[in-house]
Amino acid sequence: MLQITDTAASAFRAILAQDEVQGQAIRLVPERTSHGKRGISLEAIDEPALADAQAEARGVRVVVAHELASTLDDAVLDAKPTEEGTEFFIRAQSANGS
Hints:
Layout: E1 3-4, H1 6-17, E2 25-32, E3 38-45, E4 53-54, E5 61-64, H2 66-72, E6 75-82, E7 85-92
Parallel strand pairs: 1-6, 2-5
Antiparallel strand pairs: 2-3, 4-5, 6-7
């Protein structure tokens, strides 16, 4: 199961708290960049699709689109602040599960 760090969960909560954002959960979906590379996009949703997988996050509901679930099953989604805003990135889960 995809794990979400506290830093990323906090960033998700901040996104969902914005007045212009409509939704009560974050959904991770596949996307293709303008350069043809694969990436992951975020969308605010009210209800997940039936095939979506749950992710482990503190204080925010995060789901993963079915197409990404197996790819991200043993990953950690983390975040860090940058001058342009929050940058999200994926890393492998450590062997001890933390």
